[in-house]
Every structure is written in C-alpha cells, then in structure tokens.
Amino acid sequence: MAARKRASSDTTTQQKSQETSSSSSISPDSPIAPSKAAQILKFSSLFFFVPYSYLVFYHYEIENQLRRSILINAVLSFAGFFVTLRLIPVASAYVLRRNLFGYDINKKGTPQGTIKVPESLGIVIGIVFMVVAILFQYFNFTSDSIWLVEYNAALASICFMTLLGFVDDVLDVPWRVKLVLPSFAALPLLMAYAGHTTIIIPKPLIPYVGLEVLDLGWIYKLYMGLLAVFCTNSINIHAGLNGLEVGQTVVIASAILIHNVMQIGASTDPEYKQAHAFSIYLVQPLLATSLALLSYNWYPSSVFVGDTYTYFAGMTMAVVGILGHFSETLLIFFIPQVLNFLLSLPQLSGYVKCPRHRLPRFDPQTGLLTGTDDGTLVNLFLRKFGRMSEKSLCILLLVFQAIGCCFCFVLRWFLAGWYK
Prior knowledge:
Shape: globular
Structural class: mainly alpha
Helix content: 55-70%
C-alpha cells in the first residue's frame, strides 16, 4: 500500500475527453523522471554484490556445475535489470493513458503533490521476472528433473499472485478479501509440493517430546499456506514511503542470497544444497528486477509499485523459504514486518478504527513527517525518534531491516549445534 491517493471518479470523468483526444499522441517515451540506476548500482555493489561474489567464487568450495548454474542465473538476472529499466518508462506512459495514477499524499501541499504518478508498475517487474525464470529452465533443468515440477509450481503461484495483485490495484479490493488472496495463489505450490512434511525438534526439547523428528503431515502444508499469506500481506502493510516496499524487499532478498550461499558452502548433503540453490535461482531475478524498480521508486518516487509488486515480492520470498526449507530463518529476516503486523493487528481486526490511509502527517512548510496514533512501524519510529523527512525515515527503516537480518545471522551462529 503506497502513500498515494487515486484520482476521483469526477476528476477522471472531467479529464477523459482530453485524454481520449490526446491518447493517440502519447508516445512510449518516458513521462517520468530519469532513473537513479547509477546510485543504486554503486551502493548495492559496495554493500552486497562484491561480498556476495566473494562468497560464491572464492570463500566457499562450491561444485563447478552448481556454480555455473548460479552464474548463468545471475547473468540472466542482470539482463533482466536492464530490460526492466527500459520497460518501466514505457509502461508508465500506458498506465497514465488508462488513468492508473495517483498523487503522493506525503507531498500534499507542495508542487510534487500535484504530479500524476503512474501506479501498478509492479506488473513490469513480475513479467520480466517470469521471463527470466522461465528462460533459466533451458540452461539448468532437464525434462526428468525432480525439481522441475516444484519450480514450475512456484512460478505458477508467483504468477497467480501477481495477477491478483494487479486486479487489486485496478478494483481496490477490500482488506478482508486481500487477506485471503494469497491462499488461492499458493494452491499450485501446495498441490505440487512433494517434499518432506517433518520438522526437527530442537535439542533442548527432545527429552520432553521423545522424538528427534516429528511428521506434521497436512499441518505442515497448512503452515506453508499461512506463511504465504503472512509474507505477502506483511510487505503490503509495511509501506507508505517512497522506496520502502521495494527497499525492504531488496534488503531481505540480499540476506536470503547470502544465507543460501553460506548453507551450500557449509553442507555436504547434495539434496540440501539443491534446495538452497533452488532458492538462489528465484531470488537473484527478484533482486535484480527490484533494484531496477527501486531506481524509479526511490525518493522522490517517479512511479508507484502498487499492490501488484508487494504481493509478487511477498509470494516469491515465501515460495523460496518453503521450498528452500528455511522458513524459520525467513521469519527472522521478517522481524520488522512481524512487529508492524503486531502493531497493526488492533486496527486490521476492527478492534480499533482503521482509516483508509494509516500514514503520518505531512507538513508542507517544513517538509517533515509527524507520527500519528495509527499502529504502524512508520508512525512508531516517528513518535520515538521525532519528526523527520520522508527520505530519512525510509533510510532509518531500511537500516532497521538490515539490522534484523544481521541479528538472524548472529542468532543462527550462536545457536548452531545447540538448538538443532
């Protein structure tokens, strides 16, 4: 849910004749500000790509075939980054022509607050991601591969969720419906899932349970479906600032990739390695296309990502957590989203009145945001740390996200050999 206000039906009606007469003259050239790709690439290379490449190619002894697959996937993802950069301005022109735009509420009262911002640009990311992921099958999977069915089921769930997200952007679906949409999108994955349904009992609890491994059966699949619902909606409600939805996805995706490489390097189990490699094959395209979107969505935002992107990103990370068998780690990566969900629960459940937009108040005179009493992490940070600009607040929240991911790595290192 971005910090946006859609044009009213009256406004749309008044403008319709003008837009209809001029629609033929709209070219696919960029109607938006230039991307910030150079800054985004420089920052991400310094803090992620260089360390990640070191882990993959130098630090860990990874089989040549597996390393080759990771490299091919990375090259395709890198190509997807540039394709996305090119397609976003083109798509922006067409969504504006179809009146899919909004106004930035956090800039209301300023000239930037009157600019039409194209919405639902997450559909571009979803399409490029799917093309990259499908093309990668040619280089990595054979027709009899045991992973191919689950890989295609994962893509089906992600595609289904992207479609439902776009429908939500167009029809503005009520919250009670939004909460259950991921359940339908997860059905292809749940039906095709052929992995284990067991959990390893933590060592301190084995004397009390009497088992080292517990088979949950259908309860495990229920857990998988609930995880998809949580991941998808938690990204969607932790929003409202330029760059926050995409930024948190980039941080979590980076942490997932580093975690996967560490697990591949430390394991000797071929199946375990393939599970984490499977996760890499989906997260690298997610990260690359998200960085391209962030180039336009970073403050001041030229495009809005829409529920299409938040649903797509949440489902993708849920899928890799499930099929990569690290759902516990994934939930720790989602610590800020868990906190935001707990803060939001009274309003989302109807116990406390929930406004249409649970956003901070913007002062056009100072350009600063002030926290409200709404139950979101955005407002909580403003109440605790004081008024600040939208950009500063977004950076602070993303730093908190990165700290949460680092805490997960420290916790895993501390509990290794004792917890499981």
